[in-house]
Fold:
Amino acid sequence: MQDIKTLGELKKSGYKSKSIKTELRENLIKKLTKKQSTFEGLIGFDDTVIPDLERAILSKHNILLLGLRGQAKTRIARQLIQLLDEYMPIIEGSELNDDPMNPLSKFGKDLVAALGNETPVSWVHRSDRYVEKLATPDVSISDLIGDVDPIKAATLKLPYSDERVIHYGLIPRSHRCIFVINELPDLQPRIQVSLFNILQEGDLQIRGFKLRLPLDISFVFTANPEDYTNRGSIITPLKDRIESQILTHYPKSVEIAMEITAQEAKIDPLQLSKITVPDFHKRILEMICFEARESEYIDDKSGVSSRLSISALENLYSTAERRMILNGEKKTTTRITDFWGVIPAVTGKLELVYEGEQEGSYNVALSLIFGACQNVFNEFFPSPNLKIRKEAKDEYGVIKAYFSGGNMVELLNDDSDIRYKKSLNQVAGLHSLVSSHYVATEAIESLMELVLWGLSEEEVLGKNILDNSTNFSDPLSDLFTDMDE
Structure:
């Protein structure tokens, strides 16, 4: 089809014009009929968001994606172009993507009237049929709809009553395209009002011009819930004109969250080849997000973006890489002490409430890491509380006895692998405990470290965190140390 260069050739080919929403609908039906995936890379939405999207497209609706930050709203919108035809014909030189069969602008109509079947035709790829605008308070009606251009009027020596003096905004230029407005509540109410006619009647007016442009646009809007953002809201009449409102959500399980992070994290191939991250470390990373969404220190209305765990995983690799380079090692495995390196990826993505501000973002991040370690420890090992387990045998008895004897373990943040393993293996009973639960594992020392962290969170051991190390000891000795201080 792309070989067609004139309107006459287009007519002979049997091409038939159709609206963009019909185009989206027909291509979706083809994919559903062939049991093909309609939206790639949207993990965890198979039974919730994606069916709602498919129903909205089949209904030829404009869509509002409503959800907290980091819930893939923009990614969803950008995926819609895969449901468009690969190429679309337009009148060559048209700024409004005029359909050769049904021109919209004065330019297009005049050209077809003058040249007829010889009207030149060009082709637009579907990737160029996606227009995205971030709503900000300074967006004007001129930006979106258009305005009279006095310079054009003077240059062409045209009166202001001539349609050719109009400078079209983003929306008219998106004729026969998908148009996305991100963060719709940030758009001033008077600007939102300007969208009424476009959504309901499909036309627009510019500066009182007596022209009707029946635009063919598929609109997608994204927004955070109105009760969260203090910057503005979606005015009710506009919301009423958006036919489908689809709620997005965060991953509902740690496994889904891990899959998303693995897909989105940008890890250098050199890091992947030299650094091993045990699965339970990845679980701890995701649990940090889950802990944050439940924390009393964090504003639950603002949300905790999935970008937190993505950035945290990238930092975890880099922390281990830096330590490996400093110690002149060729390979290494991540440790819980490496999680100190992910704190910068955590603190910048949390919106704290008053109590959280009092605690400080660094301390809040630490508490999230500790809570995540405790949860993963409880998944991997039995509880040290014998009353809960209702058992007489204490699997942690030898470890407790070691620390009760006045022994202490110091884990330096930048310890070499040799010293790290030596520090852990000196704890009586620790290796045998882990081996009894996990017979064959390359991450034996990492699991041994997890036991120490888990026992400290269960208050079986005491821990003392310094700038460059963490010390584990008997909790009573910590108590006496605190009294001396």
